[in-house]
Amino acid sequence: MTVAQGRPNYLRLLPVVVFAVVAGFFAMALRSGDPSLLPSTLVGRPVPTTTFPPVEGLETQGKPEPGFTSADLAKGKISVVNYWASWCVPCIDEHPMLERLKDESGVDIYGINYKDQASAARRFLGRFGNPFTAVGTDASGRAAIDWGVYGTPETFVVNGKGDVIYKHVGPITEESLATKLLPIVAKAKAEAAAGPSS
């Protein structure tokens, strides 16, 4: 066998090797107990251009709750985007942390109801409260692919220019709220108040 004939066999193995390396990295992040170690190519980049229609029939104080678009996340204010679902047990555990995040940081929180029934989403928010400035839907899960969502819940901190500055995978806990999300939001607010660096 010549060298030229041996090359195609080697090249055929390349995708398998790349997949194994990437899978190994994900496995280590998952086994470490800290799913937030999963990589995100979105951090440092603008949020994907997306439209999230409102949850059908969802109202706040008798008025329809609006959906939102990616443009709403680039209006000069730090915001948080949270992927959640009524069928997601960790989302129930996380929900009080979203209320605290909103109360303690003053940020707008945008909720994305993921692969859910509108009636179930309405019941969830009716039972546990609605911390969201706006609630959109991703019924097919297509937008989640663009956002790089691994599963619910996932939370993104977005600066006033619409760039993702932090991604939290898994439920927000008291510890992650205190040591990660609140400090990151506070730092982003301080940087926005200081204006562009000269």
Give the beta-strand count: 9
Helix content: 40-55%
Assign an overall shape: globular
Mean pLDDT: 85
Largest sheet: 5 strands, mixed
Structural category is alpha/beta
Distance between the termini: 62 Å
What is the number of helices?
Answer: 5
> Strand-residue fraction?
15-25%
The whole-angstrom Rg is 20 Å
- The domain tally reads 2
What CATH calls the topology of the largest domain is: Glutaredoxin
Folded structure, characterized:
The protein is an alpha/beta fold. The protein has two domains: 1-33; 35-194, 3-Layer(aba) Sandwich (Glutaredoxin). 42% of the residues lie in helices and 19% in strands. The protein contains five helices and nine strands; from the N terminus they run αβββββαβαβαββα. The chain has a five-stranded mixed β-sheet. Strands 1-4 form a two-stranded antiparallel sheet. Strands 2-3 form a two-stranded antiparallel ribbon.
